[in-house]
Write a structure and sequence with these properties.
Elements: H1 18-28, H2 36-49, E1 53-57, H3 60-70, E2 78-82, H4 87-94, E3 99-103, H5 117-120, E4 125-131, H6 140-149, E5 153-157, E6 165-166, E7 169-170, E8 177-181, E9 194-198, H7 204-211, H8 217-221, H9 241-251, H10 254-272, E10 281-282, E11 290-291, E12 297-300, H11 304-316, H12 332-337, E13 339-340, H13 345-353, E14 354-357, H14 365-382
Parallel strand pairs: 2-3, 2-4, 3-13, 4-5, 5-8
Antiparallel strand pairs: 1-9, 6-7, 6-11, 8-9, 10-12, 12-14
Helix pairs in contact: 1-9, 2-9, 3-4, 3-7, 10-14
Length: 385
């Protein structure tokens, strides 16, 4: 295997306008943020997701940390969430003294199992955080009902969810708050970057203050106050204009980027349509009322040994595949700061078996074909007909 022939797991896509917009931002002379390109991105997010307000942040992690502050997370407050997620989903609330309560995911979507949520609710429960795994929507109708019934905040970790929909509505439009990621591994990228989406208008003013170091600086720039001052605890959750300029080059072509990425996902799917599900299972169980964005194409092997063997053999064939999350409830910090709120049977099973194949804009049909044929070849070796 030659390193130069390796198909990488991910490669950031460039539209071609990024450097031009960065140069334009530099020439405008405002690099500190909340300038022309931040405003373009903000309006795009508002118009396309339908949120009340959209605030760019340095990362999805920062957006989640803002969400934890906005709902006034206190010591001992319990936050229900899946264990099969990135560490930031839990860490944002732990920083404020919150206790993650981990519950299991559904086998067909790897999203939080809504049927387990109510049993995990206690008098200490403050919020439910859903994670739209692989850009596939959680069962939002039922989860919204549960949150309203128990008077809980609902927060969407939609890091992987941009351009996906649930029953016609964009992900990020359901929760009181929602968080997006524009990390280089996502569909729409700015290197690092994120956004906090606000659907409950009671949070808008405080969000602006918390984002601007705890000051009412945003009001000052709008001419609403004659000077700005420290209002409450906050931090610097404002990205610079260079990031916003890069992001705008992506957002203005989001529809094209999304459709091209989904075409790659569907190309994989066609290869594996006729493979016996007893040999291997693949992503593709999207409910008919959900629009996906092709963020992740994954396979499920027999067990961890088979998965690790598969990854090594695919690397030998020149295809870089990778596993995904180590469940948070099994991590050192998860045991220290959180607790388990349900059986974790599916989470523990899936996490040991899942492997992701290369899906990125720019990977060509020949590369996808090579990846797919490599998978089929390995399966034939492991499970001869």
């Amino acid at each position: 295997m030659q390193s130069h022939s390796m198909i990488p797991f991910n490669k950031p896509y460039l539209t071609g306008n990024e450097l031009d917009y960065i140069a334009e931002a530099a020439n405008l002379g405002q690099l500190a943020g909340d300038g022309l390109f931040t405003e373009k991105c903000r309006k795009w997010l508002q118009n396309n997701i339908g949120c009340d307000e959209a605030l760019l942040t340095p990362s999805c992690t920062a957006a989640l940390e803002m969400a934890a502050l906005l709902i006034d997370t206190q010591q001992g407050d319990e936050i229900i969430m899946p264990s099969y997620t990135f560490v930031s989903t839990a860490n944002a609330f732990v920083l404020q003294g919150g206790v993650p309560v981990f519950i299991d995911v559904k086998k067909n979507t790897l999203n939080i199992d809504e049927s387990l949520i109510e049993a995990a609710i206690t008098p200490k429960t403050k919020a439910i955080v859903v994670v739209h795994y692989a850009g596939l929507a959680c069962e939002m109708d039922q989860i919204v009902k549960i949150a309203r019934k128990h008077n809980l905040y609902l927060i969407e970790d939609a890091a992987q969810g941009i351009m996906s929909k649930y029953k016609g509505s964009p992900l990020g439009s359901f929760g009181d708050l929602a968080c997006l990621s524009f990390h280089e591994t996502k569909n729409i990228v700015s290197g690092e970057g994120g956004a906090l989406l606000i659907n409950n208008s009671k949070f808008t003013e405080r969000a602006e203050i918390i984002r601007q170091k705890g000051t009412d600086r945003t009001k000052y720039f709008r001419g609403q106050v004659d000077k700005y001052s420290w209002q409450e605890a906050g931090s610097s959750f404002l990205p610079g204009e260079i990031i916003a300029a890069f992001l705008w080059a992506q957002l203005e072509q989001a529809e094209s980027i999304s459709s091209k990425r989904l075409a790659i996902w569907e190309f994989y799917t066609r290869f594996f349509t006729d493979i016996d599900s007893h040999r291997i299972s693949f992503a593709g169980d999207a409910p008919l009322d959900c629009k996906i964005n092709g963020h992740i194409f994954y396979a499920l092997l027999d067990d961890m040994t088979a998965r690790d063997h598969f990854i090594n053999k695919m690397r030998d064939k020149g295809v870089h595949c990778t596993f995904h999350y180590v469940p948070l409830h099994n991590s050192e910090a998860g045991k220290k700061f959180g607790r388990i709120g349900s059986s974790m049977e599916v989470t523990e099973n899936i996490s040991e078996r899942l492997v992701r194949l290369p899906v990125w804009l720019g990977v060509n049909k020949e590369q996808v074909t090579k990846s797919a044929l490599s998978v089929i070849s390995l399966l034939e070796q492991q499970h001869p007909s």
